[in-house]
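Re: the request from the purification team.
They wanted to know what the chain is likely to look like in 3D before they choose a buffer screen. I agreed to run a prediction and write the result into the notebook, where they can find it.
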Amino acid sequence: MAKARIAVDIGGTFTDFALQRGDEILSAKVLTTPSKPEDGVLAGIESLLADAALAPQEVGLIIHGTTLATNAIIERKGAKTALIVTEGHRDTLEMAYENRFAQYDILADRPAPLVPRARRWPVRERLAWTGEALLPLQEESVEALLPRIADEGIEAVAIGLLHAYADPRHERRVAEIIKGAYPDLPLSLSGEVCPEIREYDRLSTTVANAYVQPLMARYLRVLNTALAERGFTCPFFLITSAGGLTTLETGMRLPIRLVESGPAGGAILASRIARQCALDQAVSFDMGGTTAKICLIDDGEPLVSRTFEVDRQYRYMKGSGFPLKVPVIEMVEIGAGGGSIAAVDSVGRLSIGPRSAGADPGPACYGTGGDEPTVTDADLLMGRLDPERFAGGKMTLRGDRAAEAVEGRVAGPLGIPLEEAVYGIGEMVDESMAGAARVHAIEWGKDLAKRTMIAFGGAAPLHAARLAQKLDIDKVIIPTKAGVGSAVGFLAAPIAFEVVRSRYVPLESFDAQAANALFDEMRAEASSIVAEGAPGERLVERRAASMRYMGQGHEIIVELPVRPLRDEDALVLKQAFETAYRYLYGRLIESLEIEALSWSLTVSTEPPEVAPTPKTADLPAPSSPLAREVRDPLAGTVRMALYERAALAPGTCLQGPALVIESETTTVVPVGFDLRVDGLGYLELSRKDRVR
């Protein structure tokens, strides 16, 4: 039998684990240890191996996803960083896009740059956009900065010179000079981190990489050493924001590629389920302890993007955070999780999140020191959670603590009964998620009502049916091991790496020879990284270009053929662009020329084949001697039968109201829903009513 594989997903509240051994998947969930995340990881892995009766030598692969890089940026806990820029471009980070994202709010502002002006150091040099040296690098201007690195206690340096995407030679020489004096100082070069046009985006991404690099490198090194000391000899891979696996060394060098690694695993899982169930249109709903993530899935593939924004400061408004130009699965993420805190503001309004109780101190019902009411407290008081069996029975929830928190912080200030306050918390968080999903779908020109919802994460099955009602979705799928869905998704991720290069090319002067040379260079870089983790495996390649009509401010991603290009392929590129443009905007602009600004190439291992869902005959539900009163938002207090998920065989059918309980989560089947277990053991909730 092939060796086992372990996936680890560190979240803000829980760290999730999945162990695959043949066709069997075991799972576990432990509280995250924020001060030393590796402690929670090691404890969970040891517990999982004990349950599986496996030794470390019997594990063939460990896959790891984490939000540590994102959290370090948001919480400003990264390294003391300096930025070296071209003379005259010291203020690019503060000038940003030179616009206001909230035009009529004079108090609205972006977050302060990660590198203050005093640590943004200019050097004398200048490249043209073609890469031509207009002013050779004046090395003495670099050498003059060397004493400041020691004097100011700099822990990392970002190097972002003008037009370095066209030719990085000046950046590399700056790095050589610094390395000569400080060989162990972490350096991030924009020509390596983000070799693309648009100076602000490139600098923002490079600075963020430098800011989190020492923290991530230290954490990954400590964890890797600890695993080796415990007898693990297998490869250790990291999940990237684009949903592929990469090596430990690449993750330490380019940690900015890991910012959305956890949510990416959930999108991989949802895409796989969509293909298994032959769903042309789906929407994934991933709700954990800290955030909720929503991703659109079309034809078995998630939407992807080349930009991402972290730490939005102003009502989640685009433009109010740090832009990162990295390959990423496109999704909307909001501060709405089980640990999201409910509060009453100064004008008497109930709000949920984005503040979270996290793992420490946790929701009030955990009994670990938290005294603020959270969504989990409300779910417990509504009867949705079994206090004795939460997290597989490893935690006992305190209903008295939850009631005390809700009464003191919500019901009392609002002057309403406890029951109404609990109901309000549940409805508020569900409406917040529904609103975010609607906006996300509208931005992409998609219709949610025609989609099937795929729900996973510890809190999602509790809220999925109510969210479906609000979004007019008729079908919800809860996969097996839903409580650790992202970790399970990691197990299906291919080893992959994407390389992007900015090269301005008008199609009317398309040079196939130059394009082929560029793709050859990109393929060599991507293949070398993928081959480290998949020696001897067959690799597949995807190509794309970022194209636009001449004069437009933004591009669209266009898939390209994977073969040597010819000059006459300018017509092929034009047709591909027009097809993609018409799909997005419903029209073409015949009078304008077309240009390509950036080119991307992805190399990956072949994804595993997905077998269709087996057909099963309908079976009656087993009798349930247990039931509990649960508050249904539409039907009031109802008595719900309790079912063990493990006791529901494929084909089992039952009618709501009911609760289906498993070790890491609980599925709420409200009044007006039917449930059927499909051939893979997934729970299918079908909506009969049309009440919102």
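For the purification team: Residues 276 and 613 are 6 Å apart (CA to CA).
Please add any questions underneath this entry.
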